[in-house]
Amino acid sequence: MVKLFFLLSGEHKTLPYAELKAILEAEKIKFEELDRSTQVIRIEANPKCIENIRLRAALTRVCCIEFFNCVAKYNEILSYVSKVPFENFINDGETFCVRIKRIRGASPHISCLMLEKEIGGEILKKKPKVKVNLENPDKMFFGVLTDGRFIFGLKVAEIDPGEFIERRPSRKPFFHPTAMPAKLARCMVNLARATRGSTVLDPFCGTSSILIEAGLIGCKIIGLDVKKKMIYGSKENLSYFKLKPEALILGDALKPPLKCEIADFIVTDPPYGRSATTMGLKVESVFESFFSNTIEVLSRGGFICVASPSRIGVSKFGVDYGLKHLESHFVYVHGGLTREISVFLKP
């Protein structure tokens, strides 16, 4: 167990923290949360967990082994830097660089460039047979200025958000304006604690945004949609990403033609927006029927992650049908819609 810190996306206030913790729980990794600050969470865990986060996370940016965490004062930072055994983390002949990230204008009295040079000089003093390489270093030493603190360590992994841009709805062969962005779809799969080899069901699969993200982390996937056009479109999109579903079923999610406890996890985004059809039902009725009719297809101990318009208060529907409401996160979409991303457990 060592101290680790993670630079998170600034796109949402709560989702990045919740996603990272959900991944650790899904992978059954023991950890202790030390603290969190703006766009940073610090934990104590086996550093091998970083690989799980690198492969799964949508809203984590940088993963580091922590050397120290101190008040963001120039002299105090340099005092801590002088005690770091850099010789244990970089070998003779290797190259390195130092990068400092300032979060939302934190600690403006500290020059990131000057601090990078000072720390780089300390490393060269302790390891004279290494060289600076700003473009493609063997090792990167990474620091974050946030909320009056400075957190510093060795970067172990970086997650490129570009892969999610490549999977944005408009770049898929079959497009529909209701399609969920890949990044949010992946985050929902992670919030559901889905695991490799488990079965994920999306009973309102649409263009398969959620199924694609579940499939890419190694889940078995089942999709259901009431519209034939969406089933054909889902098949086309899944094929584009070389994913083979267990089943794509033309059917009504409110009367699902599925066996009891067929799914380990349910992750879904039912229709409720301006471009989506509810087949003549009120939005509240869609969600009430969803919980009443699909809960039986979920295994005991399984999780549901569902998106809904915040105005309907979806948690009450889940609780009324015997689910345990674990968490909710609110995502602003436009003036007429704020999504509530809710997670439930079937006891």
Characterise the protein shown here:
Helices cover 28% and strands 32% of the residues. The protein folds into two domains: 2-158, 2-Layer Sandwich (VC0802-like), CATH 3.30.2130.30; 162-345, Vaccinia Virus protein VP39 (Rossmann fold), CATH 3.40.50. Helix 1 crosses helix 6 (182-191) and helix 3 runs parallel beside helix 4 (112-126). The protein has 347 residues and is of the alpha/beta class.
CATH level-two architecture of the largest domain:
3-Layer(aba) Sandwich
Distance between the termini: 31 Å
What count of structural domains? Answer: 2
Write down the secondary-structure element order. EHEEHEHEHEEEHHEHEHEEHEHEE
Give the name of the CATH superfamily of the largest domain. Vaccinia Virus protein VP39
Spatial strand sequence of the major β-sheet: 2-3-1-4-8-7-5-6
CATH class categorisation of the largest domain? Alpha Beta
Number of strands: 15
Strand content: 25-35%
Mean pLDDT: 94
SS-based class: alpha/beta
Low-confidence stretches: none
What integer value in Å does the Rg equal?
23 Å
Please describe the topology of this protein.
Blueprint: E1 2-8, H1 15-26, E2 31-37, E3 40-45, H2 49-56, E4 60-71, H3 74-82, E5 95-102, H4 112-126, E6 131-132, E7 139-146, E8 149-158, H5 162-166, H6 182-191, E9 199-202, H7 209-216, E10 220-225, H8 228-240, E11 247-250, E12 263-268, H9 283-294, E13 298-309, H10 315-320, E14 324-334, E15 337-345
Parallel strand pairs: 5-6, 5-7, 9-10, 9-12, 10-11, 12-13
Antiparallel strand pairs: 1-3, 1-4, 2-3, 4-8, 7-8, 13-15, 14-15
